[in-house]
Structures are given as C-alpha cells and as structure tokens.
Write a structure and sequence with these properties.
The structure holds two protein chains of two kinds. By secondary structure, chain A is an all-beta fold. Chain A has no helices and eleven strands. In chain A, the strands form two sheets. In chain A, strands 2, 4, 5, 6, 9, 10 and 11 form a seven-stranded mixed sheet that branches. The mean pLDDT of chain A is 89. The chains are: A mainly beta, B mainly beta. At the A-B interface, strand 5 and strand 10 of A face strand 5, strand 6 and strand 11 of B.
Chain lengths: 118, 115
Amino acid sequence: ETGVTQTPRHLVMGMTNKKSLKCEQHLGHNAMYWYKQSAKKPLELMFVYNFKEQTENNSVPSRFSPECPNSSHLFLHLHTLQPEDSALYLCASSQEWVGTSGRINEQFFGPGTRLTVL
Amino acid sequence: AQTVTQSQPEMSVQEAETVTLSCTYDTSESNYYLFWYKQPPSRQMILVIRQEAYKQQNATENRFSVNFQKAAKSFSLKISDSQLGDTAMYFCAFMNRNTGNQFYFGTGTSLTVIP
C-alpha cells in the first residue's frame, strides 16, 4: 500500500469500551499527527510525534492516549469516551521539521476513522 | 496563536465556470506557509496548492491559483473551468515556518459543482 492508511474506517463504541485506532504511513516520513475533525469546526490538532517522540499535546483529555512505536505507525487508544468525542479522526504524516531553512513539510492525510460513541 | 477564517461555509458553481474561495488569517509571524487542501466526499484530504509567504508571485497549479495578499492577510483560491470532480470540502491552512509542524486549519468551504 502507498500513502497513509487508517484502520478501522468506521467504529461504533459504547462509553465503557476500549478501542484503538491505527495509522500507518508508507512515505518514509518521520513526523505523524492525530487530528479531530468535527462538523463546522476547524481541524483540531491533537498530537504530534517527531522521530517517535511526542512533541505536541494540545490539551487533549486523558481518555485519548497516543502511541508511536516507530516512525511508520501511530495509534490512538480510546477509553471511556463521551458522545461528544464522535468525529472523524484523521492521521497525517510529513517530513520532520528541520528548522527555518528546511523544505516545506506538507502533510499527507489518511482517509480517517469515523468514530461514533453511543 | 494563529487563526484561519473561511467565511463561506458553502458555495456552488456551474461546471466550466470559475469560483473563488476566500481565506483570511491572523498572525504576527512573517515567515510562514499557506496551503489549500481538498477533501472529496468520503475520500482522503489532499494538497491542492501551497504558497510561501516570502514569495510575492502567486502560486498556480493547473486550474488552481491563489491570490495572496500578504498585507491584507488574505489567501483566496481560484478554481477555473470547474469540473464535477472539484466537488469537495476545501480547507485553508497556515504553518509557521519558525515552529515547524503545527498546522492551523480553517473551518472549510463546501464546494458543489453543478452539472
């Protein structure tokens, strides 16, 4: 496969369930991201990993737990979610940021996981 | 913090016509990038076009071009000869070159191309 893939594509879970979202990139990138996309709201950056190290956590509730075992894989572990957490969760990857003289690090997105919390 | 505003939630255009999507942003930075991403229905978000803030020349990619007005902090997207495949959500995004990876997105504009 090429590009950025995400599984599952759709997920329905109860508030007491534990589930995980998976993202895999085949682009040789070293930075990966989780975004939350809700209707009529800007994409919300949740987490950023550079070289497997978490560099950003934008005040995300602890019921969302990211894991990046290597530069190609990113997980989002979910537990005791709320109905307002229902959204499209997008994974993206890019080249790592190397400073102001570096190249443009456009982000490549996966197809997303449509999450519904009952 | 940077903010990106897309004031047109929905737009439509006749096939083969031209449409312009607006985007404004607020930043105190001078070294940044701007992007337009396209998200077709049930499909992946893909990059349409990008602009480096230090370049005065407007970026162009085939039927897609931008009107970058740095002083006004405006970054509109023009789609010429609209095609049915252009139907999608379009997101404007800002990236601060001094701080790297963090993108700031607008709320998006849903564009429908009418046959």
